[in-house]
């Protein structure tokens, strides 16, 4: 059974940092590129960051560039999202998602191209 499990969310003050983890089971993470998305109440799910299967390629939404870093360790079947300088408006549920190697890397920001999703982890930025 394919599963993605996110963790690391919580309550943080504006300007603070969190490190989210996404652990995969039921498949070999090295055969998938991984994306992080987020969804705030009343808003559509939006792309935040993605990493290719090997880690050689990364991509970020403009609003997180320079503050978020995505990384992976295929031996541990884990992908991380380091989030720094968090803002109030970044309160959301953060999801990791996996897509197979047959997918076009250039479509990394399109949620419909991802095959598996985790249940999400809540990030609340509040003073």
Rg, nearest Å = 14 Å
Main structural class: mainly beta
Count of beta strands: 11
**Tally of separate helices:** 0
Contiguous low-pLDDT stretches (5 residues minimum) are none
Outline the biggest β-sheet.
Answer: 7 strands, mixed
So what's the overall shape?
Answer: globular
What's the mean pLDDT score? 95
Distance between the termini: 40 Å
Which bin fits the share of residues in helices? Answer: under 10%
Kindly estimate the percentage of residues that lie in beta strands according to DSSP: over 45%
One letter per element, helices H and strands E, the order comes to: EEEEEEEEEEE
Task: Please tell me about this protein's structure.
By secondary structure, this protein is an all-beta fold. It is built from no helices and eleven strands. Strands 2, 4, 5, 6, 9, 10 and 11 form a seven-stranded mixed beta sheet that branches. A four-stranded antiparallel beta sheet has the order 1-3-8-7, with no helix packed on it. A hairpin with a 6-residue loop joins strand 5 and strand 6. The mean pLDDT is 95.
Keywords:
127 residues, 11 strands, 7-stranded mixed beta sheet
Write the layout of secondary structure elements.
Blueprint: E1 3-7, E2 10-12, E3 18-25, E4 32-39, E5 46-51, E6 58-60, E7 68-73, E8 78-83, E9 92-100, E10 116-117, E11 121-125
Parallel strand pairs: 2-11
Antiparallel strand pairs: 1-3, 3-8, 4-5, 4-9, 5-6, 7-8, 9-10, 9-11
Summarize this structure briefly.
It contains no helices and 11 strands. With 127 residues, it is mostly beta strands.
